[in-house]
Amino acid sequence: MKIMNYNDLRKVINNTIVDLSALSSRNFIRVVDFLAGLTYKDGSLTKLEKNKFLVKFEEK
Length: 60
Hints:
- It is a single chain.
- The chain has 60 residues and is an alpha+beta fold.
- The protein has one helix spanning 25-38; strands spanning 16-19, 44-49, 52-56.
- A three-stranded antiparallel β-sheet has the order 1-3-2, with no helix packed on it.
- Strand 2 (44-49) and strand 3 (52-56) form a beta hairpin.
- The longest helix has 14 residues, at 25-38.
- The radius of gyration is 10 Å and the shape is globular.
- The protein starts with 15 loop residues before the first strand and ends with a strand.
- The model has no long low-confidence stretch (mean pLDDT 92).
């Protein structure tokens, strides 16, 4: 899933690969910070390659 702006984060679901290559450096930092918070308790944010991450989190 390619993230074009901060609002695209609403579409992120468990076990999704996100591509952050289209973001400005400022938005890249904001998005990574949000994803890290999303996965903090029972998940993971794994870097696969430059600007691509695997997002896993516990769904409730």
